[in-house]
Amino acid sequence: MATSRRLIILCVLVCFLLVEASEGSKARHYKWDVEYLFWSPDCVENVVMGINGQFPGPTIRAKAGDMVVVELTNKLHTEGVVIHWHGIRQFGTPWADGTASISQCAINPGETFIYRFKVDKAGTYFYHGHFGMQRSAGLYGSLIVDVEDGKKEPFHYDGEFDLLLSDWWHQSVHHQEVGLSSKPFRWIGEPQTLLINGRGQYNCSLAAHYSNSSSSQCRLRGSEQCAPPILHVLPNKIYRLRIASTTALASLNLAIGNHKMVVVEADGNYVQPFAVDDLDIYSGESYSVLITTNQDPSNNYWLSVGVRGREPKTQQGLTILNYHPNSASKLPASSPPVTPLWNDYNHSKSFTNKIFASMGSPKPPRNYDRRITLLNTQNKLNGYTKWAINNVSLTLPATPYLGSIKHGLRNAFNQENPPESFSNDYDVMKPPVNPNTTTGNGVYMLGMNTTVDVILQNANALSANVSEIHPWHLHGHDFWVLGYGEGKFSTKDEKKLNLKNPPLRNTAVIFPYGWTALRFVADNPGAWAFHCHIEPHLHMGMGVVFAEGIQHLNRIPLEALACGLTGKMLMTTNNHN
To answer: d(Cα 355, Cα 357) in Å, to the nearest integer?
Structure first.
């Protein structure tokens, strides 16, 4: 009996490998343990959430069409964990999206969950924790998808670097979580350090000798864990920089001294190339830029990262573009590029408005079937500070939506439709007259293969003359960014929408007191988060859930649903069997 079972398993494995070989794709296998580590990301020892004893987590590298298999074991002891594969659309595998309470149950301490999904499109992506505020704790890493064999990128380069940008606090993520949920609200403040590939230097600038604020020798302080990730280049070559932002809070600006950057990719989609001196990147976004090393080869050059959209109280993140054969310890001859003023939104909009889809990219449908307008507001709930969408602050249920919708568990979440819009007389330029909000966990049920427009509408926060930047990320889809505007969106803004060559993205920003118009096709069965990618804002309720076509899914892996009401249902079924 055991022998025949082994033969059956062997046959299945052989058939699977033959299918993969025939398709020219591969399975990329990873075995990960998630655990807390002592680490010094900015030369100050702290506790980080790492994978396999390293921070950031290991880089996943695959080719378009490959299957990625991650066997993830939770070794955190006292908290659950999930990992979201940011930008991977999860066609046919919505349970692998890695969103607790939406696509799966959190993986309990000591448990193992196997993520298995196809990376269908080349591009620059990353992964991160999506339970509580574990991204802020350091659970993230890069995910790079190269073009499949036999294909080429539409641009040439001689080498490449991956730059994963993040922000870092010295107080624990638990301090931050408790403060956000306290009455009165307690804020731990701006991050202490900006990290490049998990490395930075707190209270100690590589460029200190330009300001005489401290000794430039501080760059040598600390261990390899916080040493800047030097970019070693040869003169007169073209390099691709893959830049992704997994920040919990900060919007960033990146520049390289004396070098222009040509933007060629955004969120895994090719764009019409355009040259810039610096670029703004919001949490959840990714870009590829090309640089040409055609400057004086006897010098090195600064790469700087600074804060945008918030009054900067965090020092620039710096590293060095090191021209061969110069020593990497040779400081550049000039000071680092200056980050544009934090509230120079015209600069930000100028960059954003230059992004157009490349020739041959998919075009959006001319018309929409449904329009949902989402008003972003800061509110109060029984004295607690919240963020809300159309006056509903999201609270996730115990049972993952994917399972509860599939199995018709109507008591698992609120069955009422969330509001499609907000009152016409709401003044987005002033604090809310009535600041009170409600909580909810209803779902926007979308018709399969329908075209959906989303208007993201920004507004004044609780304090007068305050409206914040919000980068919104959609799971399971790319969307077309049809346009941006000032004030409240109205029908007269329709003519401003770009239906000719709008860029495809998975993350889009709404500027203060403005609106952003998006369009996507609901063609991917599953339950999908759509939320502000600033982690404290999501934690405080700034998100919604879309669902489409779940009835078309076949079997959902039981291990994704073994909690809440679906867990009880499965236990009852097993007991009856």
So the answer is: 7
